[in-house]
Specification:
The chain is of the alpha/beta class. The chain contains seven helices and four strands; from the N terminus they run αβαβαβααβαα. α1 runs parallel beside α2 and α2 packs parallel to α3.
Length: about 190
């Protein structure tokens, strides 16, 4: 049975607490999955009417906080010469959908941060992935599209085994950046 440290925290304000608690409990962190996300106002407004404070929160949770966690945990990964960083993104980061501008901009920023980080970590033994798990039936997606029936979409349990696959992949070159849409690219192996 895995040793788990449950923490309730706001990643945008408590990244240092999260990293410190994990390192104190386990001594090291081998895998960082930045999955926390903020959708913004619901229903989602167009960019011309997007509340400034809400946009700052979305960017802080979806792009700035993941980088802060990476910065906090990267030194011990570098010291060991290994580690896996998985940043969860969305097709809204590369496609323009009306109303999804704030969220999409934050995910585009996360993807670019990830590509740059992978280039900077080349040869270090640390792997960086950006993963779009595809459209899913989640509470956050229901907030984004209130009143839309999402029950036909898969739940988070569907792409979960693909995350494990990425972590267990041993022959991946260090500093590699790989972006993937899990449901599409690994769907046959995870359904």
């Amino acid at each position: 049975m895995a040793d788990v440290l449950p923490l309730v925290a706001d990643v945008s304000e408590e990244a240092e607490h999260i990293a410190t608690a994990a390192l104190a409990r386990f001594g090291r962190v081998d895998v960082l999955v930045n999955n926390a996300s903020e959708i913004g106002p619901s229903p989602m407004p167009g960019l011309d009417a997007y509340p400034w404070d809400a946009l700052l929160r979305v960017l802080r949770v979806n792009a700035v906080a993941p980088l802060h966690l990476i910065q906090m945990l990267l030194p011990q990964m570098r010291a060991r010469g290994e580690g896996v960083i998985i940043n969860v993104t969305s097709d809204a980061g590369v496609q323009a959908y009306p109303g999804w501008g704030g969220y999409g901009a934050s995910k585009a920023a996360l993807e670019h941060l990830s590509r740059t980080l992978a280039a900077e970590l080349e040869g270090s033994g640390i792997r960086v992935y950006v993963v779009d798990p595809g459209d899913m039936d989640t509470a956050m997606h229901r907030l984004a599209e209130p009143g839309v029936d999402l029950t036909h979409l898969p739940g988070p349990h569907v792409p979960a085994p693909a995350f494990v696959h990425l972590v267990e992949e041993e022959q991946a070159p260090s500093g590699r950046f790989e972006a993937m849409k899990l449901v599409a690219s690994l769907g046959a192996g995870i359904r």
